[in-house]
Amino acid sequence: MTERLEKLGITQLNDMQQEAHEAILHGQQDVVVLSPTGTGKTLAYLLPLVEMLDANQREPQALVIVPGRELAMQSDRVMRDMGSPLRSAACYGGRTAMEEHRRLKDVQPQVIFGTPGRLNDHLDKGNINPYGIRYLVIDEFDKCLEMGFHDEMARLLKKLPGIRRRILLSATDAEQIPDFVALGRTVRIDYLNENEQVNERVTAYVVKSPVKDKLETLRELLLTLGDEQSVVFLSFRDAVERVGDYLRREGFGVSVFHGGMEQKQREDALYKFANGSANIFVSTDLGSRGLDIPDIQNIIHYHLPLHEQELVHRVGRTARWDKLGSTFFIQGPEEQLPDFVEANIKEYPLPSLSREGSGVSLPRNATIYIGKGKKDKISKGDIVGFLCKKGGLEPADIGRIDVMDRYAYAAISRPKLEQVLRLTKGEKIKGLKTVIEPVK
What pTM, to 2 d.p., does this model score? Predict the structure, then answer.
């Protein structure tokens, strides 16, 4: 286990992870883990799970159900980054089931991460053999078991006759776990503080907007935050687009994120923010769950949360692990903070910022798209070598690199973007012609 933690850059497990590791690896009971967002629940179940599975088997042995594609992709990436001999695959909507079927045949994963609807589709078509699956994990189980997923989940679990143990994880407790989950004797690991909506490492502020339209107040707030990584939460997709367009016109480095976007657009937006190519992430509450971005300093509620769970998940994006963070409630002249907000809130006075005298802090990086990936035998090392040799960069100019099957993303120093595009135009990577272009 120590070697896997080193590959992930982690020195030791926290108390919740240690307790979950012991209960899953050395116990025989079902396990329910309740712990705040940002405490590492994915590792809490993956580390013991990889020790329990057989890397020599070709059939799936564990199924991990998640509510959305981003969490499926992210969990699959963590599994691969651990350096385990086990194989994994992610299944989710937004791409063809046939493409995933081919990948399942090629990879022969022992662990499958997936959303309920897509997993049902593969099981119905015989693309996933259910009979060897012994372990069922439901991550974000409060979301997966909501009424919107209820029927899908009930159908899915009926197709898994060989389940021996169930592991459920969430940052908030569900009022009731449906009978169809069929929990047996259960170990409950509860690290939720019911009296703590906002982590003690998060400072809460209210920002008063003098007018109903809060755009100018948001702009002034972001100017005071400089180049810090900030997430702006709104309740509606069209509002996300409106605020994103406004901030771009004002010169900010912005990613927008909501459920109405194409999968590729959402992936691009997420990568840009995660690798420092955008420092403002404007999102619906879709972005409040399952996104593991460790260095978010600020959570801004442009639209006030409607429910306590929304508040918990939004604020859980900052102060992850042992870091500090801030959360800002932008309050219009006719608005009141919801009764369920119990944090100690300070007023955040905005300085008078003239448009002429206030400069926007641009993000430190830019993201480039490289049109070759794993299937072309391209590695992270190949990309670093290419960007240094052909693009004139130093290793310090290169940030996060993500290599997919057919393409890759790389974060590079923003001031060097034009240089890289100019110098790499028409150049080959490992003898292959490829497209190099900025992700906008």
Answer: 0.69
